[in-house]
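Purpose: get a first structural picture of the assembly so the mutagenesis plan has something to point at.
Setup: three entries, given in the order below. No constraints added.
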Amino acid sequence: MTIIGIPQGWPADERTALAVQEDLRGRLELGEPGPGVGEGNVTGVDVAYDDERDLVAAAAVVLDARTLDVVAEATAVGRVSFPYVPGLLAFREVPTVLAALGRLTADPGLLVCDGYGLAHPRRFGLASHLGVLTGLPSIGVAKNPFTFGYEQPGEQRGEFSALVAEGETVGRALRTRAGVKPVFVSVGHRVSLERACAHTLHLTPRYRLPETTRRADALCRRALGEALTAQSG
DNA sequence: GCGACAG
DNA sequence: ATCTTGTCGC
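Result (structure tokens, whole complex):
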């Protein structure tokens, strides 16, 4: 197994990361509708950590958007490239995720990330970074509301409310299962919020979280486990 | 000023 | 994210 290194020039401190983030944000494309629901491929990405051994495993799982069948999958294991700092999560996950995406043999299509896009202190979260860096349309589907405010959406699947920050709508609290805690959807790159939510509903025929992130989550945990076994025990 | 804060 | 048993339910 190969453990990928941290890329040359990758930010090592908060100040540099903030500057890089601001630069990437200048390349963000908003307002485009993005691919239609059920069209082409849709790819879930996620990572798992072992802080003890300073390892991070990433997984990318490509699904046929129409059938939700797995079309391709890839993993990568790397060194943790940045400490966890709220607002700078992307700098911790991006290098290894890009390595996994690079190993895919199928067109990723739309990227579905475990975290935020526009719903971010500086309106540029993990999904935005991955979208801009790959050029792919991307959305963020998070499990928690972070620091944002929202009204409880209606109890039925498909109902939603605005995620608000500084009086501005940055995403939606979307109910994917009746009576279950909503997920928090925001735009990453080249996809409208309306369509991001439609994709999310299409990807949640059975569970609260999208099939993409469920599959990527399971795969990156498995990859991390295998990496630890391979390392020693 | 201090704490909380996606994963 | 991760530390973690049993348990309820499909």
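Residues 55 and 131 of chain A are 24 Å apart (CA to CA).
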